[in-house]
Amino acid sequence: MKKLLLSLLLGSTISFSSMINGVAILVNEEPITIYDIERTMVVNKIPKNEAVAYLVDKILYDQLVKENAITADIFEINEYIEKLANANGMDVFAFKGIVKQEYPDYEVFENEAKNAVIRQKLISKIVKGQLAIANDEDMQLYYEKNINKYLTAKSFDVVQYTSTKRTALEETVKNPMKVSNEISKTPLKLESQNLQAQLQYVLHNTKPNSFTPIFTFNKQYVTLFLKHTEGTMALPFESVKPRVFNDIMSQREQSFLKEHFEKQKLTADIKVIR
């Protein structure tokens, strides 16, 4: 039955020469249009069958969220962001500062955080004790098996740019060849084992031959130009333990949701129109 339904759903011939807004599939009476499928294929760079499966799962997910009246308020979103900051060894203000430079539109990040909160609340609602919480033994084993996820450079060769004026550093980041007497430059070699978690996070997420986000240190603005890195080393288990926990639970949540929606497809009213 399951294979038959999926073959009907994923293998159905959809006429892309029809009207752009023509309904292709109904999922519990909610439509998926030809345009929806085409756009998903282009945006996600996936074939038609994967686009259809993605859209069906999304509708089932959204319907389940609505059925359970799940929402996320600003306090829950901020609490989630604070947990992310803690998992990366930073206070929430430093973490937000870095995120705001990585996301030109901070609302995009906040929306991602909101969706994560909703997903976690939905899982808590439908799991009802079925999802095992990772313990120390689970985390140690996962860390050892996935050590490549927790590697960093042994050292970073950088040029430190400091200034009392943020705008001066912003101009330098845009045009590194520009000379400014408002900026001091100092070449440094930073050893990973001596770095604070915040700086470790920043450098680890910076590509060679590029600048880090601008941050404050000793009442000055600072950015580091990463020239290159040397060697690799595993971050100590204790320092990445919160990340390991998040990785394990995220993996378990995704597996649970995938299995749950496969079951949902069997009982959902899915009609292939064209």
Mean pLDDT: 85
Helix/sheet category: alpha+beta
Quote the distance from N terminus to C terminus: 21 Å
Low-confidence stretches: 1-20
What percent strand? 15-25%
Main sheet: strands, sense, barrel: 5 strands, antiparallel
Dominant shape: globular
Helix content: 40-55%
Query: What is the tally of beta strands?
Result: 8
Encode the helix/strand succession as letters.
Answer: HEEHHHHHHEHEHEEEHE
Mind telling me the C-alpha Rg? 24 Å
Count of discrete alpha- or pi-helical segments spanning 4 or more residues: 10
Describe the model.
By secondary structure, this protein is of the alpha+beta class. Helix content is 53%, strand content 19%. It contains 10 helices and 8 strands. It has helices spanning 2-11, 34-44, 48-67, 74-87, 92-102, 106-127, 136-145, 166-174, 197-204, 237-267; strands at residues 23-27, 30-33, 151-163, 184-191, 210-211, 215-217, 220-234, 270-272. The strands form 2 sheets. Strands 3, 4, 5, 6 and 7 form a 5-stranded antiparallel sheet that branches. Strands 2-1-8 form a 3-stranded antiparallel sheet. Strand 1 and strand 2 form a beta hairpin. Helix 2 (34-44) packs across helix 3 (48-67), helix 4 (74-87) crosses helix 5 (92-102) and helix 4 (74-87) packs across helix 6 (106-127). It is globular. Residues 1-20 have low confidence and may be disordered.
